[in-house]
Every structure is written in structure tokens, then in C-alpha cells.
Amino acid sequence: MRLFKQISLLLISPALVIGCIKSQSPIELPSIATEKHIDIPLYKLSIIPPDASFKVSNFSTQIYSENYSCYFNFSIYNKSIGEILTQLNESGNIESVIETKQELLISNNVMHGKIIEWTFENYIGWDSTHTWFFLLGDSSNTYSVDIKYPEKNHAFLGGKILQSLSSIVYNYKSKKDPFAISSFSFDLTSTPLQFAGVSYGMLMFSLNGEIPTSSSETFLTIISFPGFIEENERERYAKDRIKESYTELIELNPVIKGSLNGFEVNGKNREDYSLLYNMILFDSDRFIAISGVAENYTDEFIELFRSLNNTFKLK
């Protein structure tokens, strides 16, 4: 399924399959946040941004600077750091890596991990890209930060990036609430779907509470995009999201959720007959996309996704 492949590419990075120079002793991460830190609540993390040009966006799962075309993408995996390293090493996606710069060990009072710096080619139109990958975990959870910016900006940004990553605080006493900083909520007691984690701004739900690792698994994602779409263009936009995934449009229904309106769109993949479910809600300055993927196009899976979507409420 094309959608799952797109999500998988976001979840798997090639960085760790490359041999690199290791530091002699771990960088000790701080245990207490200062007034300079900003919180990333969904991940129980706090970080000092590289400078004042960095802003928080998209469920507070990303910080970015338009000045540097630099993005910090935060993710969490319900797997041990050893499992994540094994998965990355087995991914085999190393073709575009140009050079690995360094590998630094990190630790705090409860977790350990790595910071990896490398360059690779051909990312969103840039001739070459400088990237940092931060992994911090224990026997049950792993937190990651993936950073990208054009190589031309590295000379004046690289040192600030390492300093920022070295400032990360893990707030282990915080409660993980996927809707703590969102403008909406769901009733998770009314659905078999469980909160699995967040990756690249997407809230992710699955039947086993883990981020999916194969296209045969059933999962649902939620993401909010800034932007405005004219009312007379919204139905076409909803249909195009299905068609872009090589999927045949099967059903389209208008929906209203409080002050938001939109469309529920169901499609069937022409190649493997899998289900792609979408509910798109439009606001004056943003739209919310809720997308579900299941192995087969059946009423049972459609009702599964609706069991969560029917409880959507604006705060």
C-alpha cells in the first residue's frame, strides 16, 4: 500500500547502518529543564532550541526555523532501543548516504542512546542535506529526533544543533496524553484502537498499541495541517487524497463535527484491495486529516475507524 510505504519511510532512517567514529565517553544529558527549555509534551521531552528563530508546530511534535530551512521531527516508539537499532540496521536504505560525520554516545539517569551526524543527497530538492539523528531509550520505549537542513547552512548551524540535542531533558514523571496540547479530543474507551505513539506530527493508533511495522497491520493516523481550502474546492480535495494513493473511490459522505465540516471518503487499493479510510475536516486556517489503513476493504474495518472518529470533539 502506497500510504503505508510513505509512513514507513518516515519511521525508518538509514543513518545507523553506517560505521562511524564513536565518542570515548557518553554525553550526559541534563535531568532538569530550565526556563530556556520548551516542552514537547507528547514525548515527555524538553529541549533548548538552537536559537530564537525556531518555532513549535503541528501538535508540538516539530520545531522548525524558516531562516535555516531546518526541521526537528520528534517521534516515539513503543520498542526498546535495541529493537529500534536492529530494525534500522536491517532496513538497508543506505543508497543516498554520502558521509557519516560522527556518532556520539548519550545517557541520562534512566536511558541511553546515540547522536549521529551525516550527510546525504537529493532531499526535497536540496543538492545535499545535513542530518542529525538522536535516539534515547530503555527496555520499553525509544525517543527519536530527526533533523534536516541544507548542507549550505551547516557552517553556522551545526554547532548549535549539537548543543541543542545535548540539552534534551526526559521528563519521566510526565503523563503521556496524546491530546494534551491539541484542540480536539476522542473517547478512547469506545474503540478497540489504542494510542500507539506519534511520528512526524501524526498521532498514530493501532489494535495492539504499537506503531505498525508492516502493511498487513491495521492503523489510523491523525494530523493537522495549516492552510485554507475554499469551500467549493473541499470535495475535490477529499477525493484527490484517495486518488493519489492509487485507490479507487468507493464512498464519499459529508460530515459535520461541531463547527467543522468535511468529508468521509473510503477507497479500495486497485492492486491489493486494501482499505484506505479518510475523514477530512476543514477550518478557517487549517484542516484535520484522519486516515485509516486496513488489509481488506470490509464494513468491519470501516466501522472500526468510525468507532474512534464518531467521538471526535472540539475542545
For the largest beta-sheet, the strand count, sense and barrel status come to: 8 strands, mixed
CATH topology of the largest domain: Protein Transport Mog1p, Chain A
Tally of contiguous helical segments: 5
Query: Architecture of the largest domain, according to CATH?
Result: 3-Layer(aba) Sandwich
Instruction: Report the average pLDDT across residues.
Output: 80
Order of helices and strands: HEEEEEEHEEEEHEEEEEHEEEEHE
- The domain count comes to 2
How many strands in all?
Answer: 20
| SSE-based structural type | alpha+beta
Shape: globular
Whole-angstrom Rg: 20 Å
CATH class descriptor name of the largest domain: Alpha Beta
User: Could you name the ranges where pLDDT drops below 50 across 5 or more consecutive residues?
Assistant: 1-23
- Assign a percent range to the helix content: 10-25%
What is the CATH homologous superfamily assignment of the largest domain?
Mog1/PsbP, alpha/beta/alpha sandwich
